[in-house]
Write a structure and sequence with these properties.
Blueprint: E1 22-23, E2 28-30, E3 36-38, H1 48-61, E4 64-67, E5 72-77, E6 82-85, E7 88-100, E8 105-117, E9 120-133, E10 138-150, E11 155-162, H2 166-175
Parallel strand pairs: 4-6, 5-7, 6-7, 7-8, 8-9, 9-10, 10-11
Antiparallel strand pairs: 1-2, 2-3
């Protein structure tokens, strides 16, 4: 049997889920049949133990998408400041930061500012600023980068070119 406490230690009160109910000035809810039901006082915000770290992370990194372990995602990812890959992603992305965990794998096309690879990347990767490949990281495919850091043991193979996109775009604009 369930306790009357919620997940966050707050006590729940009797409520109605009727879409026809409306709150009156005395704090009770009136139903179309004329009966009164006690209203639920919802907390104004989440408990501080939940909201403080979440708000701090959101303010620091903007929008963040984490693909957890044992999760597979396919498609196109847009409007994401930070993508953390702990599972498997097959997608096209354009964001600021990509972090691939040791057991994470990304396959597809990515155009980003900063990449930190501890797992596997396979596909077309354009890193405008800095590509960091850690000892457990493996990057293969068509790779463009501004700056490159490879930790001992890290692997990089494929069509490599210095210049993460800014230099190429400027060159194309000058010649046009």
């Amino acid at each position: 049997m369930l306790r009357s406490e919620s997940l966050f230690g707050k006590r729940e009160t009797t409520s109605t889920n009727s879409p026809f109910s409306s709150a009156s000035s005395n704090g009770s809810t009136s139903t179309p049949t004329g009966g009164n039901v006690t209203s639920v006082n919802k907390p104004a915000q989440y408990p501080s133990s939940v909201s403080a770290p979440a708000q701090a992370a959101a303010e620091e990194s903007g929008s963040k998408l984490t693909v957890g372990p044992n999760i597979k995602v396919k498609g196109e990812i847009e409007d994401c400041d930070t993508l953390v890959v702990e599972g498997k992603v097959q997608a096209t992305i354009n964001c600021r930061v990509v972090q691939i965990a040791e057991r994470g794998a990304f396959k597809g096309s990515a155009e980003i500012d900063l990449a930190e690879i501890r797992g596997e990347f396979d596909g077309e990767l354009t890193v405008r600023q800095k590509l960091v490949i850690y000892a457990s990281g493996k990057v293969t495919g068509k790779i463009r980068y501004g700056k490159l850091v490879i930790e001992e043991g890290g692997q990089l193979a494929g069509d490599l070119q210095v210049g993460g996109g800014h230099e190429q775009k400027e060159l194309l604009q000058k010649t046009a």
